[in-house]
Every structure is written in structure tokens, then in C-alpha cells.
Design goal:
The protein has 402 residues and is an alpha+beta fold. 33% of the residues lie in helices and 25% in strands. The strands form three sheets. A six-stranded mixed beta sheet has the order 13-12-11-14-10-15. A five-stranded mixed beta sheet has the order 3-9-8-7-6, sandwiched between helices. The longest helix is centred in the middle third of the chain and has 23 residues.
């Protein structure tokens, strides 16, 4: 597996990027991607009711026909922009279509950045022309830079794998650092493969993978207006078409896609705004997925837990309190066990008899920490990945528009 290094090109998937001066810092901020006509694309989008104009347009276009191109800009979210935002998103699709010789409905637009500002249309038009002129199958690194906002590092994944008797390639990029929470956690993800697979199978695969990756991360509890993730299969590999979710080849393919999405999602958490800790909140022994996630999110989203993590303070009472207010019915507190890594901190309704502050402090000083909560009321298990809250998180978001 290669991450943040050599990006394997995907046959039939071309990327171009440019500095359109949408971002104030002058960095790469606009990306155009073109796919071969036979390519199929799957997508998932934010569940925020105030979804951005490009999300609305992309969803509409995807329902009408398979896309031939993607357009991504950073530095401006085109969210909270009303009818003008929709018109602008549609116009940018037309400009891409004019450059590539396809229809505007075959273009999916994506934006990320500041909410409530109209797109700088002259810059968009010039940028689209420049990025389109530089399309290349080796354009992944430029594209990764072009989708970043408060990210401090690129998030990339690239791997060649065997599916049955065939070799295929998977390459993906993502952005996200703050405004991260399940329901398509502000994140964007774009991945491609040369595999031959039907659109229906590809969509099932992506939806399932997102559920256990991007929808299992949280930095700050804010679900973005612009989240989206796409997966394109260009059909260029020498292999039989994967056309059934029951086939062994589909299961292999789905496992590889899920591995890629989890890796990208975890990179987002590790690059969480101001983050100094990577925390896995594992809840097992629940009656079902829902109640496991209720408890995991209560802990992962607690400002008091997150600030204790930043301070490396083994204040286990904050974790216990978060579990207690998660809203589970008929919760037997005497049955619950809570661990920091392998150190039991809570049992039988209170502090574990074997626990010492020194043990807890040693775990809390680590960069990677597991908080394990055993409910002992069922067989379900879920994991959510999160971060601490640091001084820098407040600073980054207080200064975001300046």
C-alpha cells in the first residue's frame, strides 16, 4: 500500500489542476477530472439540510446520466448562496462541458471552503480552462493539493491488488480537517479504479464502505454542507465484469474499497484541526448498531472528554458521565466496563479496584489511544474515530475567514 507517495495512475481517469486565485493564499484551488465514456461513477453526499448548491446540482445530474467529468474548487463552498449559487454551479458545469465536449449534465460540481459567499465566476471560468488544458492520468498530486482547505497534509491512497485472476488499481484522495462529523463527515473524497463493475454494484460498494469509514469519524460534531465522496470505475482492466454483489470477486473488491476509505477517513482524523491525539472509541456488547453509536458519539463528542485527552489527563469520570447521558434505556451501570487501552478504569458502577492514576496517565500521554466501553447487553460492536480538542482548534476556526 502506498500513502502520500507514489500515486498509481488509473487508465481512463484524467486530472488537471490550477491556481485560480479563489484561495487567498494563492495555492492550487481548482481541479477538473475527465473520465472515459464507458466509466461509471457512484457517489454519496452530505445529509445536512442546508446542502451546498454544488451538492444539489451533482445529485440531480447523477440521476440523469453517468458523469464524464468532475469539477472541484476549494476556497469557496458555494453554500448558503440561494438561487444564485445554483445558477453559478450550473454555469461552471457548462464551462467544463464546453472545454471537454460533453453536456453540462455530465459534469458533477464540488466545492469546499467558506460558506455564504458567491463563487468568483471569472476566476472559475479561467481556472476551468487552465485545468482542462493540463489533464493527465498522472495529475493526482496536483488534484489532492487543489481540494485542500485547512488540511496540513495531503490524504492519498494508492494500491494495486488482485481480484480473482486479474490485477486492478485503486487510487483515492480526500480532504478534511475540521467540520467533521458522520453523515458524510468538511470532507471530500474522490477515488477511481480501472476495474470492470456495474454502476449498481459500485454504488452498493461505496455506500457500504462510507458507512464504516467516513461516517465513523468525528472531529467536532459539525456536519458540513458540502460533504461528498465519489468512486469511479473506468472499466479499463482486463477482467470479467463484476455484476453481482454475491460474487467472490465483488466481495474481494468491496473489501479493498473499504480498506481504502477507512485509511483515508483515519487520515482526516489524524489531521484534525489542532489535533494531538488519534482516539478510537470502541463500544461493544450493545443490543444493536444504533445504541453502540449513541454511546460512542456521546464520548467522542464530549468537549470535556476531548479537552482531558489534550491535557493527557486521565479524568475517567468524564468518560463515565458521557456514557451515562448517551440515552440508552434500561442501562445497567453495574454491568459496564470502561478501558483506556488495556487498563480497566470503570467496573461495577465505579472506579475499577485495580486502577491507579499512574496507569491512566501513562495511556493518556500516548498519541494513539483506545477507549473501550463494554456494555454487556448484546452482541453489537461499533468504532468511532476522533481527536482531542486543543488550543489550536479554537485558533484555526477563530481565524478561518481572516
Amino acid at each position: 500500500m502506498s500513502q502520500q507517495s507514489s500515486m498509481h495512475p488509473i487508465a481512463g481517469f484524467y486530472l488537471g489542476s490550477t491556481q485560480a486565485k479563489i484561495k487567498k493564499n494563492g495555492k492550487t484551488d481548482l481541479v477538473v477530472i475527465e473520465m472515459v465514456p464507458e466509466a461509471v461513477t457512484a457517489a454519496t453526499f452530505t445529509l445536512n439540510a442546508f446542502c451546498a448548491a454544488p451538492v444539489t446540482v451533482a445529485k440531480q445530474h447523477l440521476q440523469k446520466q453517468m458523469p464524464r467529468a468532475l469539477l472541484i474548487n476549494s476556497g469557496n463552498a458555494n453554500a448558503g448562496t440561494g438561487e444564485q449559487g445554483l445558477k453559478d454551479a450550473l454555469q461552471t458545469c457548462q464551462w467544463v462541458a464546453d472545454e471537454l465536449g460533453c453536456s453540462a449534465q455530465e459534469v458533477l460540481p464540488f466545492s469546499t471552503g467558506v460558506i455564504g459567499q458567491n463563487l468568483p465566476m471569472e476566476k472559475m471560468q479561467l481556472g476551468i480552462a487552465e485545468a482542462s488544458a493540463g489533464l493527465s492520468i498522472t495529475g493526482w498530486e496536483g488534484a489532492c493539493a487543489g481540494i485542500m482547505t485547512t488540511d496540513t497534509v495531503p490524504k492519498t491512497y494508492s494500491k494495486t491488488v488482485q481480484i480473482g485472476n486479474s490485477s486492478i488499481t485503486l487510487t483515492g484522495i480526500a480532504k478534511g480537517s475540521g467540520m467533521i462529523h458522520p453523515n458524510m463527515a468538511t470532507m471530500l473524497g474522490f477515488a477511481a479504479t480501472d476495474a470492470k463493475i456495474t454502476q449498481a454494484c459500485l454504488q452498493q460498494c461505496l455506500s457500504d464502505a462510507v458507512k464504516v469509514s467516513f461516517n465513523r469519524i468525528t472531529v467536532d460534531g459539525d456536519t458540513s454542507t458540502n460533504d461528498a465522496c465519489t468512486l469511479t470505475a473506468t472499466q479499463q482492466a482486463d477482467m470479467p465484469v463484476i455484476d453481482s454483489v454475491d460474487s467472490a470477486e465483488y466481495q474481494q473488491f468491496a473489501a479493498e474499497v473499504t480498506e481504502m476509505m477507512i485509511a483515508l477517513a483515519q487520515m482526516i482524523v489524524r489531521d484534525g484541526e489542532g489535533a494531538t491525539k488519534f482516539v478510537s472509541v470502541i463500544v461493544e456488547g450493545g443490543n444493536n448498531e444504533k445504541e453502540c453509536l449513541q454511546v460512542a458519539h456521546a464520548v467522542a463528542l464530549s468537549p470535556l472528554v476531548k479537552t482531558a485527552l489534550f491535557a493527557s489527563d486521565a479524568n475517567w469520570g468524564r468518560i463515565l458521565a458521557a456514557v451515562g447521558r448517551a440515552g440508552l434505556e434500561n442501562l445497567d451501570i453495574n454491568a459496564i466496563e470502561i478501558y483506556l487501552d488495556d487498563v480497566c478504569i470503570v467496573e461495577k458502577g465505579g472506579r475499577a479496584a485495580s486502577y491507579t492514576e499512574e496507569q491512566g496517565a501513562a495511556v493518556m500521554k500516548q498519541t494513539d489511544i483506545n477507549i473501550l466501553i463494554k456494555l454487556h447487553r448484546g452482541e453489537a460492536k461499533e468504532t468511532v474515530w476522533t481527536t482531542d480538542f486543543s488550543f489550536d482548534y479554537v485558533k484555526i476556526n477563530a481565524e478561518y475567514r481572516s
